[in-house]
Structure formats: C-alpha cells, structure tokens
C-alpha cells in the first residue's frame, strides 16, 4: 500500500503541465508580493533602526496579511483548476481518443447491431448468437489484441526516432527507406511486419474456428441437446470467415494509431457498420436467413472495412516488402508472446463468466448477453483514452522527453477518471431504456436490467484499468502488463468458480468487477514503485 500512496501523492502534487520547452517561472502571487514588499520598503541605511522605524514595519506587515491570505487563496484555486484544466496535452489526448471511439469499438458495435436484430427473432436465437459472439471474440483476441498494441507502440517509436534523426542528421538510426528515388511513400518495417503477421494469424483463426466449432461449444457449456447448439454453430461457422479481415484491419489500425491518426480508421469502421446494419435488415427478415444472415452481413462489412484501411494506408506507405528487418520480427514475437499471456489472463474470467451464465439457461443467458455487450461497448470508450495515452507516451518516451511523458500520464489518468464517472451516471439513468432496443421479452428484460449495477459501478474502475494498459504499452512495459493481469485473472476466476454457482448472475458480475478492480490497483502499484521503465520516466532530468 505504500507504493499506492506514493503514486497518489505524485498525482496530487503534480504541477500544472505545460508543453515541452516552456520554462517554469516564479508563481505570479509570490512575484506580486515580492514587488509589493520592495515598493513599500525602500532601502534603509545600515545600523540600528529607530523605534519609529520598527513600529512602521510592524504596521506595514499587518497591512499585508489580508492581501497575502487573499493571494494565497487565489493561488490555491488556480492550482486546483489547473489540475483539471484541458491544456494542450489534454486536447491532444482528446483529439486522438474521440475519433478512435467508434474505430476501437468496431466489433462490439457490430455485435450490438446483430444482437438487436436477432433479439427480435427469439430468446433462443439471441442466446445462441451471444455465445457465438463471445467465443469468436475470445479466440480472436488471443492474437489480435497483442498485435494491435505492439504495432501501435512500435510505429509510434519509429516515427518519433525518425523525427529526432531528421533534426540531427542521423537518419541511419531507423531503417526507413524509400523504395525508389521518385517514390513518395516510405517504408516502415513495423508496419510491413505487422501486416504480414496479421495475414497468417487471420487464416489460422479462420481454420481453427471452423474445424473446432463443435469442440468450442462443448467447452463453453452448450451441449448437443441444447436448443442453442444448432443456431450457435451456424453463426460461428460463418462468422469465422471474417477472421482474416478483422486481424488485418486491426494491424492497419495500429499503424494509423502509431501515426496518431484515428480519423481514417473511424471512416472505415463507420462504413463497415452501416453496411452491416443495412444487410442485417435485408438478410435476417426479408430473405429469412435468420442467424446465418446476421453472420453473412457481419463478414461482408468486415471485408469492406479492411479494404478501405489498406487502400488508405497504401497511399502513405509501402505495405509489403522483402526488406523486413529480422530484429523487428523478433521484437514482435517477444513482446507479442508476453501480451498473448496477458490476453489469456483476460479471456479466462470472461470465458468462465459466459460459460457459467450459459448454464443458467436460455433466458438468463440472453439477459446476461445484453448486459455484457453494453458493458464491453461502453468500456471501450475508456480504451480509446488508453490508445491516445499509449501513442503520445510512446512518442515522448522514445524521444527522451520524460517531463512531457509524465504530463501525458497525469492528464490521461485525470480524463479517464472523469470519463468513467460520467459514463456511470449516464448508464444508471438510461440503461433501462437502452435494453428495450435488444428484445421485447419481459423475462429477458428483467434479467438484463438486474445487471444495471454491474454495468454502472464498474465504469470508473474500467476507465482506470484500461488507461493503465495503454500506459504500460507506451513504455513497452509488456512484462508487468502480462504478470499483473495474470494475477488478477487467476484470482477473479477462482472467485467466479466459488461464488457464481451459489449466487447466479450476481456472482458472475461480482467476479468481473473484481477482475477490473485488481487491474486498476496493480497499475497504481506499478507507478508508485517506479520499477522497470518507470524509473526513467520519473527521473528528474530529461
């Protein structure tokens, strides 16, 4: 707890951040008092002061006391307002995070659209699609999330080092070359490596989901005799064909994020989701394809989004080249291996929660699915802040601008905390009406609305936990991210196994809140202990 206290004190005593390169000045209140004192006290001759002189000085000091108290109060208010104000760094964070919200939430938004349409078919189909979406997301995240985060950090680092190299004439530090003399596009090894790995990973995921569909249903707790089994397998088998474009699109998004461009991914994701909604309305009801139509609509939209991203990225960079540096591949594999371990730790409690909810029956599973999808979608709004913090922190850390890196850290945590509280209040007031979008089954709605406390209370905790993930990745603190998440995952999974069978969905939701809470505590502990790369970040000199 001592480390947590140190971290808390660091945040509370943090000075108002400023852009790098500005020189700290004497506080305005102190400067005014200094000048006032000199105006009121002209130089005196040395020697023993007269009695009258002593009395005059005492009177003047008494007159200054109210003024000093007033100025100190003003300085205190300014300090508090400065702590929460949106300075240039805060605006940079929001400028990256706001366009990233929809881009980052592509899969959850698609799942929400599918859930809304399928929910009007029936509760069995809704529960089946919920299980299939959870299985697809859990399997794909095993490789997709590590690839996305590693790409973002490595591209941001290469961009930052290139900028420094340009200023001192040392371009040989980063292997960024032009393919041809007249070629406007440049070659970043991190991007080419990421896309090559994404293509291979996507194909493997597709084959694994198709071949292992039945086994995955057995693992998640859907027996052959369950009415959910057939529609769940139909949806997952067709959904598997969307794995390659999902992985490639995430790698491309990571490259754009490294450039701190979150608008281009936003355009691609919006286009894909619009197509998904239109095709859902056509395939599910007029054509009568049911859950299969929902899967086909989703896959079509994913290929469209991937095409748009690659097309735009190809205008700026050479996407594929044989001139891939072997060291980059090794870095990807090492860092990716750590984050795969972390992703497994994230998947474990989510998988258990879905399995335990599915064993409750179709109606509880359908209600749980609505709450879970809302929770995941809203939580990713906080992950957009983590993304902004990661890109900015990676850039400043690579440049050696540690003072500015600390400023980014302070600001992203402040904005994340405020965002979590606002989301909690909004969901508490509007969750009941929001749940009506997914189904009109009263029994399912009762279950879904019972999860309002879970969805609401967890938002501030989620915000801090997600932001810390971005900060870890920004300084390549992948090892601690993996080990701390593994600890949180094991503890919360044990809690789920012990509590959920007795308390039902209430125990499931409590276990997920515990999981996010442990991750947030681990983040404060890491900053307070100043271990690993954070020792450099907290150094007093840049």
Characterize the structure shown.
This protein has 542 residues and is mainly alpha-helical. The chain is 79% helix and 1% strand. It has helices at residues 2-12, 28-40, 51-84, 88-104, 106-118, 123-168, 189-211, 213-220, 229-239, 243-258, 263-283, 290-314, 326-358, 362-399, 402-435, 442-450, 452-474, 478-503, 505-529, 534-537; strands spanning 177-178, 186-187. The longest helix has 46 residues, at 123-168. It is globular, with a radius of gyration of 27 Å. The two termini are 29 Å apart. Mean pLDDT is 76; it is low at 1-51 and 168-182.
Helix content: over 70%
Distance, first to last CA:
29 Å
Give helix and strand order, one letter per element, not per position.
HHHHHHEEHHHHHHHHHHHHHH
State the shape: globular
- Major sheet size, sense and barrel closure: 2 strands, antiparallel
Poorly predicted ranges: 1-51, 168-182
Strand order, main sheet: write it out: 1-2
Task: Tell me the Rg in angstroms.
Answer: 27 Å
Oligomer: single chain
What is the total tally of β strands? 2
In short:
With 542 residues, the chain is mainly alpha-helical. It is 79% helix and 1% strand. A two-stranded antiparallel sheet has the order 1-2.
Keywords, separated by commas or semicolons:
79% helix; 542 residues; 20 helices; disordered N terminus; two-stranded antiparallel sheet; 1% strand; globular; mainly alpha
Indicate the topology.
Blueprint: H1 2-12, H2 28-40, H3 51-84, H4 88-104, H5 106-118, H6 123-168, E1 177-178, E2 186-187, H7 189-211, H8 213-220, H9 229-239, H10 243-258, H11 263-283, H12 290-314, H13 326-358, H14 362-399, H15 402-435, H16 442-450, H17 452-474, H18 478-503, H19 505-529, H20 534-537
Antiparallel strand pairs: 1-2
Helix pairs in contact: 1-19, 2-3, 4-11, 4-14, 5-6, 5-11, 5-12, 5-14, 6-7, 6-9, 6-10, 6-13, 6-14, 7-10, 9-12, 10-12, 11-12, 13-18, 13-19, 14-15, 14-16, 14-17, 15-17, 17-19, 18-19
């Amino acid at each position: 707890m001592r480390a947590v206290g140190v971290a808390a004190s660091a945040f509370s005593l943090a000075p108002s951040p400023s852009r790098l390169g500005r020189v700290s000045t004497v506080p305005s209140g102190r400067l005014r008092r200094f000048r006032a004192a000199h105006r009121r006290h002209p130089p005196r001759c040395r020697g023993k002061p007269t009695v009258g002189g002593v009395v005059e000085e005492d009177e003047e000091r008494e007159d200054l006391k109210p003024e000093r108290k007033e100025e100190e109060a003003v300085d205190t208010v300014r300090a508090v307002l400065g702590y929460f104000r949106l300075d240039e760094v805060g605006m940079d964070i929001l400028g990256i995070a706001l366009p990233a919200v929809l881009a980052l939430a592509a899969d959850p938004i698609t799942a929400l659209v599918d859930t809304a349409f399928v929910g009007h078919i029936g509760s069995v189909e809704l529960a089946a699609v919920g299980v299939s979406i959870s299985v697809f997301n859990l399997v794909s995240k095993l490789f997709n999330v590590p690839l996305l985060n590693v790409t973002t950090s490595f591209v941001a680092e290469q961009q930052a080092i290139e900028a420094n190299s340009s200023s001192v004439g040392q371009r040989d530090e980063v292997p960024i070359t032009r393919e041809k003399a007249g070629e406007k596009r440049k070659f970043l090894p991190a991007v080419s490596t990421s896309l090559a790995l994404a293509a291979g990973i996507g194909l493997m995921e597709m084959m694994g989901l198709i071949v292992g569909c039945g086994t995955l249903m057995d693992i998640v707790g859907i027996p052959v005799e369950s009415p959910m089994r057939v529609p769940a397998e139909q949806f997952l088998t067709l959904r598997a064909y969307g794995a390659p474009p999902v992985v490639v699109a995430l790698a491309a998004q990571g490259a754009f994020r490294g450039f701190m461009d979150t608008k281009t991914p936003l355009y691609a994701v919006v286009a894909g989701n619009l197509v998904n909604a239109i095709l859902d309305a056509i395939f599910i009801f007029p054509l009568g394809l049911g859950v299969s139509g929902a899967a086909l609509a989703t896959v079509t939209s994913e290929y469209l989004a991937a095409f748009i991203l690659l097309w735009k990225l190809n205008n700026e960079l050479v996407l594929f080249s044989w001139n891939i540096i072997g060291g980059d591949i090794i870095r990807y594999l090492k860092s990716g291996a750590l984050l795969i371990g972390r992703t497994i730790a994230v998947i474990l409690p989510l998988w258990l929660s879905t399995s335990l909810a599915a064993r409750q029956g179709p109606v509880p599973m359908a209600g749980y699915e609505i709450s879970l999808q809302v929770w995941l979608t809203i939580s990713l709004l906080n992950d957009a802040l983590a993304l902004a913090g990661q890109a900015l922190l990676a850039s400043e850390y690579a440049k050696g601008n540690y003072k500015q890196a600390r400023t980014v850290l302070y600001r992203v945590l402040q904005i994340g905390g405020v965002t979590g509280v606002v989301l909690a209040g909004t969901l508490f007031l509007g969750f009941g009406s929001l749940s009506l979008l997914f189904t009109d089954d009263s029994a399912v709605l009762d279950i879904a609305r019972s999860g309002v406390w879970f969805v609401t209370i967890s938002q501030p905790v989620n915000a801090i936990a997600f932001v810390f993930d971005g900060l870890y990745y920004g300084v390549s603190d992948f090892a601690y991210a993996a080990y701390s998440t593994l600890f949180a995952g094991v503890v919360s999974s044990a809690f789920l196994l012990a509590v959920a069978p007795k308390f039902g969905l209430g125990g499931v939701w409590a276990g997920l809140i515990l999981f996010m809470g442990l991750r947030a505590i681990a983040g404060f502990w890491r900053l307070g202990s100043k271990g690993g790369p954070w020792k450099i970040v907290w150094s007093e000199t840049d």
